[in-house]
Amino acid sequence: MMTGATRVTRCRSCGGAFGPVFCDLGETAVANSYLPPDADPAAEPRYPLCAVVCSQCRMVQLDHSVDATGIFSDYAYFSSASSSWLDHAARYAAAMTDRLGLGAGSLVIEVASNDGYLLKNFVAAGIPCLGIEPAANVAAVAVAAGVPTEVCFLTPDSAARIVAGRGRGADLVAANNVLAHVPDINGFVAGLARLLAPQGVLTVEAPHLLRQVDGVQFDTIYHEHYAYWSLMAIEPLFARHGLTVFDVEHLPTHGGSLRVFASPTARAPSPALVALRETEAARGLGGDGFYTGFDAHVRHLLAGFRDWLAKARAEGRRIAAYGAAAKGNTFLNAAGVGADDLLAVADLSPAKAGRLLPGSHVPVVSPAALLALAPDDILILPWNIAPEIVGQLRGAGFAGALWTAVPEMRAHR
Hints:
Elements (H helix, E strand, L loop, with lengths): L4 E3 L10 E11 L18 E8 L5 E3 L1 E3 L1 H5 L10 H18 L7 E4 L7 H6 L4 E4 L3 H9 L4 E2 L5 H11 L3 E7 L8 H11 E12 L1 H6 L12 E2 L2 H10 L3 E8 L5 E7 L7 H12 L6 H4 L1 H21 L4 E4 L3 H10 L9 E2 L17 E2 L1 H6 L4 E4 L5 H10 L5 E4 L5 E3 L1
Parallel strand pairs: 6-7, 6-9, 7-8, 9-10, 14-15, 14-17, 15-16, 17-18
Antiparallel strand pairs: 1-5, 2-3, 3-4, 4-11, 10-13, 12-13, 18-19
């Protein structure tokens, strides 16, 4: 249950004053709070969803915080639902095992370990590991799959307790796509630092703000994403807690992400890290101009989608959607889409089936049930895994039109 939203007036990272608005999406429902079919839509809470820029450290962040306990205590997202994400996790585990020489005497900890999607690779390789996951319903799936998991939020205190219980720090700490989800970012990074052995390595994956802007990826903005990350914002945050960033990799995931490497032990910056610092500086991330044009690009994208939707409906086309992901909920709510506009949305997750999307109240059904409705068009909401979904739908015999709407309307064969 949500307990409301709190106005934030200073930067969560450095305490600086807020500068310009990055993107204002008005008041919306919480993107991962799916409704039961008998819910009263009028009682659904809505909160401001506006991202602003810190005038000092340049961290982009929401100017309100919705209670994280309410969002994550019973979570509807299961990482294993995406085959492409499972492949990504397997590649990561293999690469880190080789790079760091991990083995039976090592310790790997993943923060926000979800359903064990990543750590199961280390379990299979005989490498000791531990997941930290605040969502009890998701953690239970990991434990059932043989992945040791602590059900808690990461704080300096919980990190100290875990290290004391293990008698050592971790050789590798993974924090993939979680940095955005933390309102107390300093407490969280302090916890990451405390989990590490002195020579340990932290890897953090996060969508890159530069790619978000270039791809008009506004739909990654939702209440559980408190911040949106550039290297320029990450480095001073990590340094504040004794972590030196020493390398970076560019990933295709989530529309373009960074994998940042850091350690409590000082290490020389890699050529890739130096290059990215120079790129962000050249693109103007240190000034206001880079951020202030994004909102207008979002308005243009939404206008184009509304035109497409109005034309399709005027022609009598039956439209459905695929992927009850949080980014899709942001998109539908920003576009003003309701249950009258879409037949249904399909999703593989059994935790979402039978529920209604937050805000739009479109019913969630299984992929087979969606295809039985015989839509003319299917809008793929998680555009970041569109090729995977196109393959699934074509393989299931769907011959109609498939679309993504970010960064513009695009048909897929």
